[in-house]
Amino acid sequence: MLANKTIVLGITGSIAAYKAADIASKLTQAGARVEVIMTEAATKFIAPLTLRSLTGQPVVTDMFEPAAEWSIEHIALAEAANVVVIAPATANVIAKLAAGISDDMLCCTVLATKAPVIVAPAMNVNMFENTITQENLAKLKARGFIIIDPAYGRLASGKMGLGRLAEVEEIIGTIKQVLGRSGDLAGKRIVVTAGGTQERIDPVRHIGNRSSGKMGYAVAEAARDRGAEVKLITAPTSLPEPAGIEVIHIETAVQMKEAVAKATPQADALIMAAAVADYQPKSVAKAKIKKETPSLTLELVRTPDILTEVKGNFLKVGFAAESEDVVANARQKLEKKQLDLIVANDITDSSSGFGTDTNKVTLISQDGNVESLPLLTKREVADRMLDKVVELLGKKP
């Protein structure tokens, strides 16, 4: 997604300027060409040499300095950019962009570019909440700028409030989403489930499983990066919410079924990567169960079979975590649930499955095609699976 893309990174005079080094580093590591433009105020917070060392590209700081590579620099950078990102963006630069003022290289480049522009504000809470700043941000939004709202937390002034630069992963996720607008899933609505459901026993205990949610989150992010409008229905996990995705939090299998039923009427595909508990306690204790006896007997009943019970004219993709006869059991599940595609993995392999960052899976489609993939990262598995989803969507009436 980022490889060989030209990203113009604008850095302005905020204490959060040091975080721009992490953004530049991660984008460069992902294969992007990062061209940095710093305002004069930004150079007071972080040295241009730092950004040059991280990106391997000259850093523009002076509007009138002769360029080593770019002839008419603001025009050349503006035309070369696939996306322009200003992080952090101060109230001053936001005001200048809203008014069309172009008295520095960054503002000139933004005015001259036809690429999408992402703005990530970072400033004192009072400055951010000031009516003028809010009006300026509204103007930029109305003109098509993408605004990444700041986070709540401790600010340089010592106050708590909105104004912290958004997390680096959120900024990079937004860049990927913007770059993926013309991907092979553009215009498609994809619903993804993730994590392991938790079936309550009492107010403090539950029946659960070892699912980390990593596979489902990887699928959601991969679909977003290919242009899809994604809804992620997730059981509790320790993972951060991915940028540019509508996240719906649930706990139980019943809640997940209700959320899936609500999300799928307009969906093109449902990808059930969640590990849904097969059983739930027949009754839930209202108070914490005390350790008064040496044993405890729970009566369990079946949870809803979401893939079987939720109906609609959308592609159905399931996952099968198996410990034996992996392909045979997965194929049986494919037929029983009338799926278009199933992703089967052997959970006895320590490098694959629950809690790991890698997976070794077999893709089995309704037409009988079986494709065994080598050990890959979960993101790579997600993309290989989505390649198949794109193919099946092209065939679906």
Task: Tell me about this structure.
The protein folds into two domains: 6-179, Flavin prenyltransferase-like (Rossmann fold); 183-395, Rossmann fold (3-Layer(aba) Sandwich), CATH 3.40.50.10300. The strands form six sheets. An eight-stranded mixed beta sheet has the order 12-11-8-13-16-17-19-20, with helices on both faces. Strands 2-1-3-4-5 form a five-stranded parallel beta sheet, sandwiched between helices. It is an alpha/beta fold and 397 residues long. It has helices at 17-29, 48-55, 73-80, 91-99, 105-112, 125-129, 131-142, 168-179, 214-225, 253-263, 306-309, 326-336, 378-395; strands at residues 6-11, 33-38, 83-89, 117-121, 146-147, 151-154, 160-164, 189-194, 199-200, 206-207, 229-234, 246-249, 269-272, 279-281, 300-302, 315-322, 341-346, 358-359, 361-365, 370-372, 376-377. It has 13 helices and 21 strands.
Strand order of the largest sheet: 12-11-8-13-16-17-19-20
Total of domains: 2
Query: Which CATH first-tier class of the largest domain would you pick?
Result: Alpha Beta
The rough form would be described as globular
Give the CATH H-level superfamily of the largest domain: CoaB-like
End-to-end distance:
29 Å
**Tally of extended strands?**
21
The number of helical elements comes to 13
Largest sheet: 8 strands, mixed
Strand content of the residues, in percent? 15-25%
CATH-assigned fold name of the largest domain: Rossmann fold
Mean pLDDT across residues: 93
Instruction: Label the CATH architecture of the largest domain.
Output: 3-Layer(aba) Sandwich
Indicate the low-confidence ranges by residue numbers: none
Estimated helix fraction: 25-40%
